[in-house]
Amino acid sequence: MTDSVISVLLVAGNRIFREAPAKHLHKRGDFRVCGGLACLSDVSSTVVTSGANVLVLDSISSKLSNFSIISDVRRKAPDVKVVLIDMDENSDTFLECVRAGALGYLLKDASATDVVAGVRAVSRGEAVYPRQLSIHLFRAVSQHWTALSSMRVRLDLGLTRRQQQILPLIAQGLTNKEIASHFHLSEQTVKNHVHRMLRRVGANDRLAMVDLARPGAFP
Question: Is there a single domain that holds both residue 161 and residue 196?
Answer without folding.
Answer: yes
